[in-house]
Amino acid sequence: MATTTGLRRAATGVGVAGPGAPLHHGKNKQLSRGAITMVLLVAPSVVLLLLINAYPLIYAANQSLHKGSLIITGKFVGFANYTDVLTRPAFWQAARFTLIFTLVGVFGSWLIGLALALLLRTRIPGGTVFKVLLMLPWVVPIVVSSTAWNWLVATPSSPVPALAERLGFGQLLFLADPTLAAITVCVFKVWVSFPFMMLMTSAALASVDTTVYEAANMDGATKWQQLTQITLPIVSRSTYISWILMTIFCVNDFPTIFLLTGGGPVTATSSLVVLAYRTVFQDFQTGPGVAIAFLMTIVLVIISTVLYRQIRKGETA
């Protein structure tokens, strides 16, 4: 009798376990239809991204393997352009300045942004207005900012050199001396970048429950202990993301350097992206110039991967 009942249920689509038993076949059909729908929805965006990014990337990679110009591809030379670039002293000088510029830009802007985010978290008079004013270096176009800084430091009669001379530091030529020019460019990068770090840190701090700090105060934790053992671990994910983004911004930053110093004096502030630009558009050596850009990309991918793994470790910890 039970067998007959089971067969009847099977014939009518009802499982032996009862009317509430799931129909896996129907669910599989729904999943397959949903997957097809998702693919159809995503396909136009993927195709568009491939057309916009893949073709220029493939074309540039092909250019880096040829000895040509902006007009003609030239003959195939394989990896000779990469070998040529890696043996140039100018490349390693630019790589050294890019490293310094990136380290100062990332960690300098992060430290200032973190300090200001913590300050704005407290109740200070006019905090909202103060926060808006702090956003100006990032909001103002880079052309305007670089013009203002040129006016401040470019000539001996500019306000900052004139003030330094009156204070007894002598005549300081901030954009003519190689060391001072490098320092000026790095400080300028921190100036235009710290608002971004401040926003990232402020957004992360907004999700922190204040009761955590109240409990820490009751346990007798100092402000430094609260910062290093509570605040920084909680905002670590946002910190790593901001480091990745700022590293990319610094390595690829062309206008900040070019508008302020043009890569000079001589090549003191010439980063890899400025060197790539000069190699392609001034020396008309397309292959070596594009090879420099691809080497930059490889380094950025490695750095981003390392920092991304730190994010994943923080999530699984």
UniProtKB/TrEMBL annotation:
One BP term from GO: transmembrane transport
Predominant location category: membrane
GO cellular component term of the entry, any: plasma membrane
Residues annotated as domain ABC transmembrane type-1: 95-307
Record-linked InterPro entries: MetI-like, MetI-like_sf
Membrane topology classification: Multi-pass membrane protein
Any Pfam family the entry gives: BPD_transp_1
Keywords for the protein's UniProt record, in alphabetical order: Cell membrane, Membrane, Sugar transport, Transmembrane, Transmembrane helix, Transport
Segments passing through the bilayer: 35-58, 97-120, 132-152, 172-192, 256-277, 289-308
Transmembrane helix as UniProt keyword: yes
Subcellular location: Cell membrane
Entries under Gene3D superfamilies matching the protein: MetI-like
PROSITE patterns hit by this protein: ABC_TM1
PANTHER family named in the record: BLR7065 PROTEIN (PTHR43005), SPERMIDINE_PUTRESCINE TRANSPORT SYSTEM PERMEASE PROTEIN (PTHR43005:SF1)
Family affiliation: Belongs to the binding-protein-dependent transport system permease family.
Name of the featured protein: Multiple sugar transport system permease protein
UniProt source species: Microlunatus antarcticus
